[in-house]
Specification:
Structural class: alpha+beta
Radius of gyration: 17 Å
Order of helices and strands: HHHEEEHHHH
Strand order of the largest sheet: 1-3-2
Shape: globular
Length: 176
Amino acid sequence: MSSLKYLASYAPDLQQQIAQLLSQNRLTDYLLQKYPTVSDIPNDAALRGYVMDLKNQYLKKSQPLSKIVFDKKIHVVNNALGLHSFVSRVQGGKLKSKNEIRISTLFKNAPHEFLNMIVVHELAHLKEKNHNKAFYQLCRHMLPDYHQIEFDVRVYLTHLEEKGEVYMNQSVINKA
């Protein structure tokens, strides 16, 4: 069985199913059947609008976001798909804070559901800093099938590492 590091915390039978799909060269078909098209959010401005819409729908009273961008420096090598940063500074006797959300550019050409899961995850950090029960309850509130999509994102990452890109030409197909 190949290294399934993105799926290491899942049950052995799930890992075995994914390993079998990989060995039979059927993992691409699995992903394309379940998630046939990619996101239509191509740039930082569109990402900002998308994130703000979700924030305003679910987290109206949370702290404002000062920056929302796709970031090419974020890569799964660092075990990060998105980052939420919170910076506090004292300026003129006042405490100023800034919240930023950065999403890996990997999700520009991935299914919308995957981008949505990453955004929901980062937005949840506005209220819950740690990955605890309250954090995952908030994620499920914003995205009821959060855990299934998180699993599928991990399957996608496994595919990227083992077989390469799944959605190479999808952005052209979506615009046709």
